[in-house]
């Protein structure tokens, strides 16, 4: 969601058509450094089973699958264009049965209780309709002791008020303060919540343990 790109923000929420595919390619490129920073806050084990919510173009899924070399990775998105793009991006891993890309929503995860060791959400919680409900869904599908990782390039901060106001207006997205996110994660049942900030860039990473 780089401001300078001035792309149609609705395409970030639900990519469609040629413009949607361009946005997905842009996401794969632009989110790489942010994702690297966020993933550095957790340790992925080779046999982990991982869910990436809002998988977009599928590059994060590919990175998770490489780290969980003996495990399994699931990516979900509510946009059909994202499903097609992420599946193509992970074609070989999908064929091998290591990666699965599914159409689903964060507020209704189609998985059994205690399925995943890790759940990641990169640049997607802005669009979740009910954070507490979605966080509760994540808590449900995590194994005891499992970790939920949220990584975003924007949070509510007076230092970025002008830019973030434009994001909220143009993109119809919601931003929260770090404390608001922490309280919602605790309310959803998570026991330990750590917040990491890159204040000069307005980046936020939340790590919550079940």
TrEMBL record:
Keywords: Methyltransferase, Transferase. One of its GO terms (biological process) is methylation. Its EC number is 2.1.-.-. GO terms for molecular function: sterol 24-C-methyltransferase activity. InterPro entries: Erg6_SMT_methyltransf, Methyltranfer_dom, SAM-dependent_MTases_sf. Residues 45-169 form the Methyltransferase domain. It is an enzyme of class 2 (transferase). SUPFAM superfamilies: S-adenosyl-L-methionine-dependent methyltransferases. PANTHER family: HYPOTHETICAL LOC100005854, ZGC:194242. This is Class I SAM-dependent methyltransferase. The lineage of its organism: Bacteria, Bacillati, Bacillota, Clostridia, Eubacteriales.
């Amino acid at each position: 969601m780089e401001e300078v790109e001035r792309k149609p923000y609705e395409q970030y929420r639900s990519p469609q058509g040629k413009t949607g595919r361009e946005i997905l390619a842009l996401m794969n490129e632009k989110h790489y450094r942010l994702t690297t920073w966020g993933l550095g806050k957790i340790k992925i084990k080779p046999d982990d089973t991982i869910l990436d919510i809002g998988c977009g173009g599928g590059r994060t899924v590919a990175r998770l699958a490489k780290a969980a070399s003996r495990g399994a990775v699931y990516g979900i998105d509510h946009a059909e264009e994202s499903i097609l793009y992420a599946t193509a991006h992970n074609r070989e891993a999908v064929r091998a049965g290591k990666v699965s890309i599914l159409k689903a929503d964060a507020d209704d995860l189609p998985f059994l209780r205690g399925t995943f060791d890790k759940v990641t959400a990169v640049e997607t919680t802005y669009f979740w309709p009910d954070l507490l409900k979605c966080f509760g869904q994540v808590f449900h599908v995590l194994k005891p002791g499992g970790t939920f990782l949220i990584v975003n390039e924007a949070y509510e901060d007076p230092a970025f008020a002008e830019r973030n106001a434009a994001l909220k207006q143009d993109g119809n997205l919601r931003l929260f303060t770090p404390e608001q996110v922490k309280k919602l994660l605790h309310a959803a049942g998570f026991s330990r919540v750590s917040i990491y900030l890159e204040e000069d860039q307005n980046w936020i990473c939340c790590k919550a343990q079940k």
